[in-house]
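Page header: ASSEMBLY MODEL / four components / 218 residues total.
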Amino acid sequence: MGKQMTEMLKGTLEGIVLAILAARPAYGYEITARLREQGFSDIAEGTVYALLVRIEQRGLVDVQKVPSEKGPPRKVYSLNAQGGDYLEEFWRTWSFLAERIEQLHEGER
Amino acid sequence: MGKQMTEMLKGTLEGIVLAILAARPAYGYEITARLREQGFSDIAEGTVYALLVRIEQRGLVDVQKVPSEKGPPRKVYSLNAQGGDYLEEFWRTWSFLAERIEQLHEGER
DNA sequence: GCCACTATTCAGTGTTGCTATCTACCGGTA
DNA sequence: TACCGGTAGATAGCAACACTGAATAGTGGC
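Prediction written out in full:
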C-alpha cells in the first residue's frame, strides 16, 4: 500500500471500523475481509486486531465470544451507546476536514 | 483541538499544505495563519515548521530566503515539479478514501 | 530598556498503522 | 499418521506524524 494511504488511515481507520460495526456486529477476520473487498487491498490483519483491542479497552464496543464451525472461537464486536457517540463525533470531525480539503481541491483547478 | 482531529490530520495536513503552496508560494508563519483562518483553529506552529522541513528534505518544494520588514528573514516555499506529482498522488489517495468513507456514512442513515 | 509582534527551530511525548511472527482449531488428503 | 490450507486471534518492535513547550532572533514603538 502507498505510504500516503498508510498515513491517511491513521485516525480514519478507527472511524471506518466503527461505522462497519454500526451497520451490524462483526468479528475481526470478517472486518478485515470486508475492508479488502471494499478496495483497502492490503490492510494488515494485525492492524485490525490491534485496533479492536483499543476500542474495546476504551469501552466503545461490547464483545461476545461465539464458537465457529471452522477454526477458533470468534470475538464478535458490537457498537454500544458510547461507541455511537464517538462515531458521531467522528463524522463531525470528518465532515469538517473533508469540506476544507474539497475547497482546496476545487480552488486548485 | 480534539484528539480525533489530531489523528485525522496525520497524512492529510501534508497534502493541505502542499495544496496551499500549489496556489502560491508562502512561508511558514503565513501558512499557519491561513490555516487558522480556515478554521483549523489550533494547529501548532511547531507542527507546520516540522512539516515544512520534511517536505523540503524530500525535495517537494524549493526554498528562498526573503528579508522581512518586521522580523527575521522568511523562508518562502514553493511547490516544484516533484511536489506537483506528489500532490496529484495525494488527491488520488484522498479521493479513494473519501469515496469509501462517504459510502459508509450514507449507508448508515 | 522593555514589550509585542513576527518568524523559525528543536527535544521529548503519545498515538497510530505496518511488519513479522506465533498460537490455535478444523477438514481434507496423501 | 502427517501435513497443509483456510479460519481466527494475539503481540513485540518499528517508523511516521502531530502536539507540547520552550528557546532563539529580528524589528519597531512606548
